[in-house]
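Late entry, evening session. Most of the bench is empty. Finally got around to the prediction I had been postponing all week. Sequence below, unchanged from the version circulated by S.P.
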Amino acid sequence: MMRVGILAYGSLLSDPGTEIAAATIRIVENIETPFNVEFARSSSSRGGAPTLVPVSSGGSRVSGQIIVVDASADEAGHMLYRREIHKVGSAKLYKPPPGKSGDRVRVKIVDGPLANVATVLYTEIGSNIVDLTAERLASLAIASVTQAETGKDGISYLMAALGHGIRTALSDAYAAEILRRTGASCLEEALRSLRAG
């Protein structure tokens, strides 16, 4: 049994960060998340774009990966934390946040082994989109195109998730609503037209 892995189901799939990438010894594909996820958090670092987070109601279990790393569980937790707070390469160490703040990153461990990996870590941060509908997600994603760094907007995030086979309860309707509002035939075209203004 492999020792330590990191569960990836969002942007970690395509951008694990240099620390996790350097420690990676194997990737286990097609792992269903043991919890439901949804585009339920508006991320300030992405211009308010919707991002995937674990949810207690709604959402879907999705197909992700386990990034098996050559590190202890504590070391992996610190690397994952630094990646989530955009401090890769710093000396920041993870400490569980006090109380029940939904805006703080928590590094958690999946109950029991998963896909022959003894300890699997993942991050949890609270959902903050109250009106969780395809229409609301599309509004946030479209607005983020002019607010976020190139490639960090909601449409780019959605395209990357769909490209990795991520499908949630809202993902198809969310994508369709972006196309309806922009008059585009695909998300790439929608993004180009919004960037062009």
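Two things to note before I forget:
The two ends are 52 Å apart (CA to CA).
The longest helix spans residues 73-84.
Will write this up properly tomorrow.
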